[in-house]
Structures are given as structure tokens and as C-alpha cells.
Design brief:
By secondary structure, the chain is α/β, with parallel strands linked by helices. It contains 17 helices and 28 strands. The chain has two domains: 322 residues, Rossmann fold; 111 residues, ANL, C-terminal domain (GMP Synthetase, Chain A, domain 3). Helix 12 links the parallel strand 13 and strand 14. The longest helix is centred in the N-terminal third of the chain and has 18 residues. It is globular.
């Protein structure tokens, strides 16, 4: 049975009864007082950003005030949705909901482009009693809610008057802390129910795994606070470990990625995280003049996760910033998902992530075999070992334990695995708590929907079950196809999405991508070249190649390509109507 865990589990401190992110805020406020807890780098006026800060004491007082106001309008267990942009106010709103005993629902302001449908669906699903926002966003939030199916009380967290000191009830560690909505289809977002025990366990696992220490480590993040990784890195780990949180808006990063690296340089002992695309984006967009202001030798951990980690990206990023003091061992490739709070596994500290070149044909057939010199090959980056959980590989059809070296579904068991999906009993049973059950706790295994293999004791993620392109009975990993087409100079880097559609003759493969900027290439000729390259490299005939203008391929709110949205937009004709050529 392919099950892995660390010989000495990286767990951090155990979760005691009555603990939560909000109670730990009180602990750090008493211990760290006037030291900075949260810094928000506001770049809305351009430039290097205006730093808005809160000390631990100020944050605790503001959270107390918000909790007091919430206790007037909502009861324990009712939902409090956060509809705000990236800011210190978002941190106050989220922690205020927890302190008041409500179930927080971290969402986003209604002005986030392209995500109004998802926001409306999430609100309808969770039925919030109260919505938390800021005074600047109140009008937009109120207008949006007027057209929705919910009618909550709206509270502006920066307009709440101070409240007197009071004793708050200790939270039940097994009560829901918040609902983490997954970034799936806008038609049916699912809220993962995460308890105080789940999220605090995972935040402590992250602090221990990444080498975070109170007083010397800063968590620097541009990831949205409503995403699982952004929430734990930006709020959870700082509350668990007494770390300073340095936040910036995702748009500020996308406008000028050097801003992220400047923030890392200004934060001794920094840890941070980003999807794979962001590292390649930095390497290609940060100028030589901007590098003169970077000092990256004190960075502790740079986590690469939430999408496949590409060896070429690691090399490109390190080559670009080695001259700024970046050490190769700070790269930490990671695997996680919202259903497990976020973090499941990470590569070991102190050395670069391991890379293994596998036989591509055998891997597609379900077996991880190192490639011979003359074989077609795929190089995968290890996602390390679990950080206080167990990981097993299961047969995709039967769920039985996979054989050594066999690709199967990744399943996870541990204290950070959530309770299920909000209001979705059937889906919860199908995903959470699968056998074999732990005889002591009764806990089962989480079916992640991701494919992977254990090789030499480390986890390698090969793809997602639902993203596999299966044509003529053969499996193809979409990231392999995307990597091949993005080698063509007419294709904009990190813009391709490969997926399968149904047809009269079975499944067919489609690639949607963006034309590179400042290119005069003929898209018809380029499409023919891409068909030939994919045929030669993968033995796959592409049904369609759709070239779009730069910025047209659907992405998630954190900037990743969304294959699911690409597929839906292709099938309903929205993408093909905008094709070039």
C-alpha cells in the first residue's frame, strides 16, 4: 500500500480546546503589543505603495469592536460573509467574525472582474446573516446585494466604534470556523466546512514546515485572502505563529511583479507562496534596473504550489534572481487543496526540490518509470512528504491501494481535513471520510480528485482526474500538451489550456491559447505547426486550435489559467467567436 508520512511528523503544537485564530490574536496582542502585526501595501495610487499598518494591540482592539457589533445582529453559528478587497480591514473582518462565534465566509468585493456569478452563487449557498465590508466598498456591496437572493445586515468594519473589553466564550474546536469556497464553476461553488481544529492544525503545520518563527519571520503575500493559500499564509499562519503579515493586492503584483520581490527584500526572514505561473511571470517581467533594489538572501521559503510545478520555471526564476542573493534551497514545491484546509505536503528545507524524468508513455499508462535515454520523457518536480498527515495512492476505479510506482488518486487523512461541503451531504460522503476508517478516531480518507504517484518516498503530482485528456483510449496530461504548444514563438507564454470535448466519435482534444504580443506570425500557419508538434510529441491529433488575443484566455482570480472555464466558454461558443484568423 503506497502510504507516506514523515518519520517524525511536522505538526507544530497540538490544538487545545478553546483555541482559534481569534483567541491566539489575543495571546499575541498581550505578548507583542506594539509590534507590527499587519502591513498592507496599498498601490492604488501607483509607485511603491503606501504602508497601512496595525500593531498586534490595535488589531486585537479592532477585532473586539467588530465582534461586539456582530454579536448585536447575529448569533453563534450564523454565517458572516466578507466582501472586501485586500486590506487590513479584511483581516479585521475575518477575525471579528471568528471572535463573535460566527462562521466566517471569506469572499471578495463585487467589483472583481468576471466573478459576479460566482459571488452571487456563494452567497445564495451559505445564506449569510451579515456581510462585512469597508466604508469605501459599502455602496458597491449594497447595490450588489439588492440584486441577489439574500438580505443580510451590512457592517462596515472601519466604521464600527471602539468597544469595551469583554470575555468571549471559548470556541468549540470542532465547530465550523469558516467556509472555504472552492474556485470551481460559477454555477455551483462548494463551501468546504473547516473547523477551528482543522485550520489551526494546518496553520501550525505550515509554520513548522516552512521554518517560521515569531519575531523573525514575515509572511509576505499578494494571494487573494479569499483563496485557501492566501488565507492561511496571510492570516492563519501569522495568528498561529505570531508572524507579521505583509499583504498586497493581486492586481498590484500583476501590474508590477517587482513589487512582490521588493516586499520580500524589505522583510527579513520572509516566507511567501505563489502558483507556478507567478515565478515565470517575475522572471520575464522584472527589469534589470528593478533587480538593483532586490536583496533576496534572507528569504526563508518560497512555496510553489496550487498548479503543476514546472522544472523550467524553477530554473528560469532562479537564473533571473540568483544575482539578487536568492538561494536555490529556498524553493519549496508543495501540494495542497481547500478540502484539506490547504497544505498537504512540501519538499524538505535546505535543498532544492527533487526532479525526476519519467517515461511519458508509461506515465500516461499509469506507471512511473524513469525514462531511458531514447524515450519520450516528462520531468516532474517532487511535492515532498506530508506535513503531519498521511497520503496514500488509490486505484482510480476501485479505490484499492495502488501498487508501488502506480499512478492513482491522491488521498489524504489528517487533522486538517475538513468536515465536508456546506449543505451537500451526498457530495460530502463521496469525497470525505472514505474507507479504510481510522479505528481510533473514525476518520477516513479524503478523495482529492488529483492524480499522483509515490516515488522513492516522495509525492509526485501528475494531474487532475477531471482534466485528463482521454482520446482513443490513451491518457494525456494537459500540462504536457500545453508545455509543447507554448514552445512556439507565436504563443504567449503561460496562456495555453488543453482540454477534451465530447463528439460523435468520442473524446477530442482542443487547445485554446493567446497569440504572443508584438508578433506578426500568421495564426493559421502557427496552428498547423502546433498540430504537427503535438502529433509528433504526444501521438495526439488536435481537434481544434483556437488563437485568442493577449488576455482573452479565462483565468482564475489569482491569475491561473482555468481549464474548466475555457472548456465551458468553448462549448458555448464564447471563445470561438473571439478567435483570431
Amino acid at each position: 500500500m503506497e502510504t507516506i508520512s514523515r518519520p517524525v511528523p511536522v505538526t507544530g503544537a497540538p490544538v487545545d480546546g478553546g483555541e482559534s485564530f481569534a483567541t491566539l490574536l489575543g495571546h499575541w496582542a498581550r505578548r507583542l503589543g506594539d509590534r507590527i502585526a499587519v502591513t498592507h501595501l496599498d498601490h492604488r495610487d501607483g509607485g511603491d505603495g503606501r504602508a497601512v499598518t496595525l500593531t498586534w494591540r490595535e488589531l486585537d482592539e479592532r477585532v473586539d469592536a467588530v465582534a461586539a457589533r456582530l454579536s448585536e445582529v447575529a448569533g453563534p453559528g450564523e454565517r458572516a460573509a466578507v466582501l472586501a478587497g485586500q486590506s487590513a480591514g479584511y483581516v479585521v473582518a475575518f477575525l471579528g467574525a471568528l471572535r463573535a462565534g460566527l462562521v466566517a465566509v471569506p469572499l471578495f468585493a463585487p467589483d472583481l472582474p468576471g466573478h459576479a456569478g460566482r459571488l452571487a452563487a456563494a452567497l445564495a449557498d451559505c445564506g449569510p446573516r451579515v456581510v462585512l465590508t469597508t466604508a469605501a466598498e459599502d455602496e458597491a456591496v449594497t447595490r450588489f446585494l439588492a440584486g441577489s437572493t439574500v438580505d443580510p445586515v451590512v457592517v462596515d468594519v472601519d466604521a464600527v466604534p471602539p468597544a469595551g473589553a469583554r470575555q468571549w466564550p471559548e470556541p468549540d474546536p470542532d465547530a465550523p470556523a469558516y467556509l472555504q469556497y472552492t474556485s470551481g464553476s460559477t454555477r455551483s461553488p462548494a463551501g468546504v466546512v473547516l473547523t477551528h481544529r482543522n485550520v489551526l492544525a494546518n496553520a501550525r503545520q505550515a509554520c513548522a514546515a516552512y521554518g517560521a518563527e515569531s519575531g523573525t519571520t514575515s509572511a509576505v503575500s499578494w494571494l487573494p485572502l479569499f483563496h485557501d493559500m492566501g488565507l492561511i499564509l496571510g492570516i492563519g499562519a501569522p495568528m498561529a505563529g505570531g508572524l507579521e503579515s505583509v499583504l498586497m493586492d493581486p492586481l498590484a503584483f500583476l501590474e508590477r511583479p517587482a513589487r512582490w520581490l521588493r516586499a520580500l527584500s524589505a522583510s527579513p526572514g520572509a516566507i511567501s507562496a505563489a502558483p507556478n505561473f507567478a515565478y515565470a511571470y517575475c522572471a520575464s517581467r522584472v527589469t534589470e534596473d528593478e533587480k538593483l533594489y532586490l536583496e533576496l538572501s534572507r528569504v526563508v521559503s518560497l512555496i510553489n504550489g496550487s498548479e503543476p510545478v514546472l522544472p523550467a520555471t524553477i530554473a528560469k526564476f532562479h537564473d533571473a534572481f540568483a544575482g539578487c542573493g536568492l538561494r536555490p534551497e529556498v524553493h519549496r514545491s508543495s501540494y495542497g487543496l481547500a478540502e484539506a484546509t490547504v497544505l498537504v505536503s512540501v519538499t524538505d528545507a535546505g535543498k532544492p526540490p527533487r526532479q525526476v524524468t519519467f517515461d511519458r508513455t508509461r506515465l500516461a499508462a499509469g506507471y512511473a518509470v524513469p525514462a531511458a535515454a531514447d524515450a519520450s520523457a516528462t520531468t516532474l518536480v517532487s511535492c515532498g512528504r506530508p506535513v503531519g498527515q498521511r497520503v496514500r495512492i488509490a486505484d482510480q476505479v476501485t479505490g484499492a491501494p495502488a501498487e508501488p510506482g502506480e499512478v492513482g488518486e491522491i488521498r489524504v487523512s489528517g487533522p486538517n481535513v475538513g468536515r465536508g461541503y456546506w449543505g451537500r451531504t451526498e457530495a460530502s460522503v463521496a469525497t470525505f471520510g472514505l474507507p479504510p476508517l481510522d479505528p481510533d478516531t473514525g476518520a477516513g480518507w479524503l478523495a482529492t480528485g488529483d492524480l499522483g504517484v509515490v516515488f522513492d518516498g516522495e509525492l509526485f503530482v501528475t494531474g487532475r482526474l477531471k482534466d485528463l485528456v482521454v482520446v482513443d483510449g490513451r491518457n494525456h496530461y494537459p500540462q504536457d500538451i500545453e508545455q509543447t504548444v507554448e514552445e512556439h514563438p507565436a504563443v504567449r507564454p503561460h496562456s495555453a489550456a488543453a482540454f477534451a470535448i465530447g463528439g460523435d466519435d468520442g473524446e477530442a482534444a482542443v487547445v485554446v491559447l493567446e497569440r504572443a504580443k508584438d508578433t506578426e506570425a500568421d495564426v493559421t500557419e502557427a496552428a498547423a505547426a502546433l498540430r504537427a508538434a503535438v502529433s509528433a510529441g504526444h501521438g495526439l491529433r488536435l481537434h481544434d486550435v483556437v488563437f485568442l488575443a493577449p488576455g482573452e484566455v479565462p483565468r482564475t482570480s489569482s491569475g491561473k489559467i482555468s481549464r474548466a472555464r475555457c472548456r465551458m466558454s468553448y462549448l458555448d461558443g464564447a471563445l470561438t467567436a473571439r478567435r483570431l484568423g
